[in-house]
Amino acid sequence: MAVAEATAESLLTLREESRLSLIWRRFRRHRLAVLSGVVILFFLIVALLAPLIAPYDPLAQDLKLKNAGPSREHLLGTDELGRDTLSRLMYAARISLFVAFTVVLISETIGVIIGAISGFYGGWVDSLIQRFVEFMLSLPTLPLLLALSAIFRDVTFPGLSREWSSAIVIVLVLTSLQWITASRLVRGMVLSLREQEFTQAARALGMSNMGIILRHMIPNAIAPVIVSATLNLGGVIVVESALSFLGFGIQPPIPTWGNMLQNVQNDMWTQPAKAFYPGLCIFLASLSFNYIGDGLRDALDPRLKL
Amino acid sequence: MTAYLIRRFVQMILVVIIASAAIYLLLNVAPGGPLSGINLGADRRSRFSEQDKRRLEEYLGLHLPGPMRYVVWLLGEDWLDDIGRPDWQRLSCRAEAELCSRGVVRGDFGKSWKIAQGVSVSDLINNRLANTLLLMTSSTLLSLIVALPIGVYSAVHQYSRTDYAVTTFSFFGIAMPVFWFGLMLIFFIGGSQSWVYQTLKLPYLPTGNVTSVRDPLPGSLLNLLNAQPGSLADRLVHLILPTIVLSLLYMAGWSRYMRSSMLEVLRQDYVRTARAKGLVERAVIARHALRNALIPVITVVTLQIPSLFSGAILTETVFNWQGMGRLYVDALFSEDWPIVMALLFITAILYVLATLLADLLYTVVDPRIRFA
Question: Do A178 and A141 touch, CB atoms closer than 8 A?
């Protein structure tokens, strides 16, 4: 009897300890997700180290070498102003990844808090928030994003350079629509969580509402949020690059993967690298985030449906 | 049901009014505006003086306070006695009705500021609408015809090789930046410098526009078909590339939707019951599973309706397709707010209508769902 109890005890603690490694083991089974993780890691390292490893200044023009093909000096050739394409790609990774991570971080945080409050309190708070969410969802996304970035295109923040101002404007514009999905997700989870016994127990123990939300609701609802956040990273990268491509995102000469594709249509046959690689980066980054999200979903909870 | 519909309609009107008011005010408080760059590059003689600018503002109605401007935009000005127009323009709206706006609610979206100065927005929309409708319906239909069967097949044969291919395809399609895909297609099969023509010596496709203006050059598919500019063949050939881009995009999303919803249904008890009764697998899938699996797909497809009007912004830009999406981008670029407002307003109305339609179709497909 005592032995059985001890085994049970050890099994329990063992399971407790290996939660993270269990997730990792399940995640590893998804080969493409692991590979995607490596790709993203590579992008992140390149982005972080861009000032050290980029062979040229991304803004430095060499007008004698316009639209040059790949060579030993310029591995991916140069663009129409003689700027080194590889260096521009590296610096573009900084902006594109910065925008994606910031947007997702801020919007998921806002979404989680609003969703938890809406689901937990219910009543008029919930219906007020939900009417607003439905209102936001009933608007066309891309046209709205374009309109917002056109409106705030010329906004500059005091003390910030032009490129960082426009990066922040893009972050705010994308965040303004992005938090909605997270809030709906969390609200749905919280609606069922708050009816469960442990919530009653917490309340009986005298825990405050805010305490229950922070200690019990949000941690229990976090798994699907992590999955959807990862998938959203891919989405945000594509949308940001689309805005930049159309000329409503971050403005040249600051390179982003999206705006590097502006106006390539004229000379992309003579200099294909210029048109090919920026798009490939967008595609690879977004695809990788999608696969990682897929892998995380399988690892965190196979029954999750997102 | 009637009460429900009435409530929904009231909500819809509120949503559209609030949304359009918010956008209208944002557009008007934004730095810049239609007159901001008016003196750029002007020498002393062609400069606009402050007085000229004020007259222009009055002519465009920009001198009114924001909320008032919105009311005028929405309801028109012909019912107002004095809207603060300058003296030279103060005419009775009753006498010269065409000078006064009748407001959006009566179908008057005003006149373009910049893109086509003085042309009414409705005319601009009419010119573009056919192109967008053509592109959007053809790609929507094509992708539905392909995506739904693919999704069903891949769900029924889960984990098969085909299923794996379909899932990969939809992952790729979802991650793919449309504009880059378009550019790559042009690179490979569009224009006389494309790979198809240079390397494979095959006829190439036009890289953009809705029709050609000149006789086709030798080597192009148009020349092969002997398509005259503006003829049906000419239009169809121009349609090929943008339709491929859009359809692949939609197919990727919709086949995944169809697949996951079909998988969900196939796991249900009643499907097992149907099989246990000894029904042929075909009948189980076609009669029992598919009907319920279509419910989530209906929402997605219904929400596609507004896009038939508003067009595909990125694809139309890449292929220089003179449609609504292109018009929207151009208008935003030149700060031509009347056009922007009109397009957003109509799209928002179509959006809320499509949402209602999707909800109503739910009750048709699944009679258990009731609205009260």
Answer: no
Residue ranges making up the domain that contains A192: 36-58+94-299
Q: Are B70 and B176 contained in the same domain?
A: no
Residues B169 and B303 in one domain: yes
Cα B114 to Cα B76: distance, rounded to the nearest angstrom = 21
Q: Is B180 in contact with A264 (Cβ distance < 8 A)? A: no
B85 and B195 part of one domain:
no
Nearest-angstrom CA–CA distance, B163 and B174:
16
Nearest to B26 among A151, A278, A280 (CB): A151
* Inter-chain residue contact B351 with A138, CB threshold 8 Å: yes
Closest in A152, A279, A290 to B30, CB measured: A152
| B177 lies within 8 A of chain A by CB | yes
Tell me, yes or no, whether B8 lies in a domain. no
Residue numbers in A near B183 (CB within 8 A): 261, 264-265, 268, 275, 279
Domain count, chain B: 2
CA distance B322 to chain A (A): 16
- Is B41 in the A-facing interface, judged by CB distances under 8 Å? no
C-alpha–C-alpha distance, residues B133 and B24, integer Å = 27
Query: Domain count of chain A?
Result: 1
Same domain, B157 and B40: no
Specify whether B146 is located in the same domain as B255.
yes
Chosen for mutation from B28, B159, B180, B344 (greatest number of chain A CBs closer than 10 Å) is: B180
B15 touches chain A (CB under 8 A): yes
As a three-state string, the secondary structure of chain B is CHHHHHHHHHHHHHHHHHHHHHHHHHHHHCCCCCCCCCCCCCCCCCCCCHHHHHHHHHHHCCCCCHHHHHHHHHHCCCCCCCCCCCHHHCCCCCCCHHHCCCCHHHCCCCECCCCCCCCEHHHHHHHHHHHHHHHHHHHHHHHHHHHHHHHHHHHHCCCCHHHHHHHHHHHHHHHCCHHHHHHHHHHHHECCCCHHHHCCCCCEECCCCCCCCCCCCCCEHHHHHCCCCCCHHHHHHHHHHHHHHHHHHHHHHHHHHHHHHHHHHHCCHHHHHHHHCCCCHHHHHHHHHHHHHHHHHHHHHHCCHHHHHHCCHHHHHHCCCCCHHHHHHHHHHCCCHHHHHHHHHHHHHHHHHHHHHHHHHHHHHCCCCCCC
Tell me which of B67, B82, B108 is where a domain ends.
B108
**Structural domain boundaries enclosing B59:** 31-108
For A135, the closest of B15, B181, B264 (CB atoms) is B15
Residue B347: which of B369, B332, B328, B322 has the closest Cα? B328
**Interface contact flag, A269 B187, Cβ < 8 Å:** yes
Q: Is residue A64, in this structure, part of any structural domain at all? A: no
Q: Please indicate, yes or no, if residue B372 is contained in any of the structural domains.
A: no
pLDDT tens, N- to C-terminus, chain B (372 residues) = 788 889 889 988 988 899 889 888 888 877 666 677 677 777 777 788 878 887 777 777 777 777 888 888 888 777 666 655 555 555 556 556 666 778 888 888 888 888 888 888 999 999 999 999 999 999 999 999 999 999 999 999 998 999 999 999 999 999 999 999 999 999 998 888 888 888 888 888 888 888 888 888 888 888 888 888 888 888 999 999 999 999 999 999 999 999 999 999 999 999 999 999 999 988 899 888 998 888 888 888 888 899 999 989 999 999 999 999 999 999 998 888 899 999 999 998 998 899 889 888 888 877 777 765
